[in-house]
Amino acid sequence: MNFAPPSSVPPVEASIQVRNLSYFFGRGDLRKQVLFDISLDLHPGQIVIMTGPSGSGKTTLLTLIGALRSATEGSLQVLGKELVGLGDRHLVEIRRNIGFIFQAHNLFESLTASQNVEMAVELTGNFRGKRQQAVDMLSHLGLAERADYKPAALSGGQKQRVAIARALVNQPQLILADEPTAALDKQSGRDVVTLMQHLAQERGCTILMVTHDNRILDVADRIINLVDGRLESDESPQQFVDSHAPKALDQKMFIM
Amino acid sequence: MQRTPLALLNLIHDRKKFLTSMAGVAFAVLLMFLFTGFKNALYDSQTQLLEQLNGEIVIINRLKENMFVPRSFARRRLYQAQAFDGVAGGYALYLSDARWKNPETNRTRPVRVIAYNPSDPVLTMPAVLALQQALRLPNTAMIDSRSRDEVGPRETGVITELADREIRIVGTFSLGTDFASGNGNLIMSDQNFLRFFANRGPEETERSFATADIGLLRVAPGTDIDRLVATLRDGLPQDVLVLPMDGPEGFIARERTYWEVNTNIGFVFSLLTTMGFVVGIILVYQILYTDVADHWSEYATLKAIGYDNAYLFGVVMQEAIILSVLGFIPGLLISTLFYNLGAAVTGLLFQLTLGRVVNLYLATFIMCLISGAVAVRKVQRTDPAEVFGL
């Protein structure tokens, strides 16, 4: 199955190009295929939401694209680099160009909001301007006054925004997010995705997000549905709602 | 601007846990200090009298394997030795154990009597030199102020019995006890020594000036001591042993080696020190492992965003080193208190030399490094892919 990019997207080079990617867990008799022959292109400026039942392989695909696992079969190009067959050391290099947002904020309780963000800046070797860069990014996310607070003094939404600041501070061209709103209330979750939407538009970066949160499907340019390790559909949110919603359900249930 | 000091901040974030961690390391340090302290005190104490003796060359009975063996040699050997070129003077030292009656409880305790001619500068401690004249009076002695409490008051003016004969204390000096000294030390003149020990009844050895226990030789300035020792060994009859005072083959080193080799002190206390070391490794490992386990997802996130294993290794090792320093300092301070207490109670010599402090710090450092190296494996095995879907 090869899904061509929607015609509305300008023909620029894809941030992510996946061709015939398969992936297996385990070895020998326990070897189990979790991804089957996936082909996919993601373009700059796109927000792509990946959905699917649990166990469908979406987190596996996300970690492969994020250079957190090494792929062995097929082709996986991220930001112009082929990841298949790359060693751990090179994978670490690739990861530095990707912004990761996790379901849990994973902030160090011992560091202030600013220091947590600075940890990411230090990866670029910019020690002199790191504080300024971190505070700028936090201000951008409305946390200017909270820069010197430790996570224990921040609300859930604020912590997730600090984690997003950490993911974005180095201005990555690719952002991978795993259930970024799952731990947040409705309003905070909405704020977070709106923010990501702005960033995709301002900076032209690609955002790939795994989520079960129906409340935020509307921010997506594309929705990819993965079932049992295979790409089942690749559609716009409207198509997705039309094809997935039982007729009795109002599409407003999904787009709020 | 520097790198964010993650290791330090992680360690001190939780104050209560941090203080507990420090106390743990300090405890391991204290254990090591106490056990090496006792070992060293027992060894050091054996030689503290010898180190006070004023002479470069020593003559003793060949059978006097250590200070505990009451073998004396013919004093004429000392005069024979003085005939050799380079020998500037020779002094005889007499030693004997005697029963000392505690004037307060009237119970007798063994003490060691050190005697010599007060005209000879055998012991050059100022307190002793100042009382040379008083020591010449009959039945007088000076008492070691660091004798054990069992001997009663250690002060000038005490009148009691030594070897069933009245004795008057005319002054005090400071030396300390060891295995051979019993409960304390007395210094008296050679004349008084004869008064007390010449006729002690049928069961005790009779002492006279014909024999001495230790012969001390002073050498003329510019003399090659090793060569003179060799000459004396050739020239004197084989019933005496001639030794230099200092050096690896010297009298002091020989005494120390005897106690090190022929007793279980070294083995027992080295074993206990090693146990302190192992306890330390386990404690520090627990501390570091807990830190890693508590921050597992944060460390995995660092790996996910592009930090490599070397960085995480560095963080855990820094934590180990910070713990080794911050635990060592209170450990050292408490140990100093215990050393002073130990010295006061036992009269043994507890020495805290710079070399010993440095050695134990190195041991602490290595202890923390080993713990760190074991704990860091947990972080290094962290699979950053697992942060997704947590």
TrEMBL record, chain A:
Entry GO CC: membrane protein complex; plasma membrane
Any GO MF annotation of the entry: ATP binding
Keyword terms of this UniProt record: ATP-binding, Nucleotide-binding, Transport
Domain ABC transporter as annotated: residue spans: 16-253
SMART domains found in the cross-reference section: AAA
Recorded superkingdom: Bacteria
Entry-linked SUPFAM superfamilies: P-loop containing nucleoside triphosphate hydrolases (SSF52540)
Matching InterPro entries: AAA+_ATPase, ABC_heterocyst_DevA, ABC_transporter-like_ATP-bd, ABC_transporter-like_CS, ABC_transpr_LolD-like, MacB-like_ATP-bd, P-loop_NTPase
Protein's name in the database: ABC transporter ATP-binding protein
TrEMBL record, chain B:
InterPro entries on file: ABC-4/HrtB_transporter, ABC3_permease_C, DevC
A Gene Ontology term for the protein's cellular component: plasma membrane
Domain (ABC3 transporter permease C-terminal): residue spans on this chain: 272-383
UniProt-listed Pfam families: FtsX
Native source organism of the sequence: Shackletoniella antarctica
Main subcellular location: membrane
The protein's name in its UniProt record: DevC protein
Record key words, sorted: Cell membrane, Membrane, Transmembrane, Transmembrane helix, Transport
Subcellular location: Cell membrane
Membrane topology: Multi-pass membrane protein
Transmembrane parts of this sequence: 18-38, 265-289, 360-376
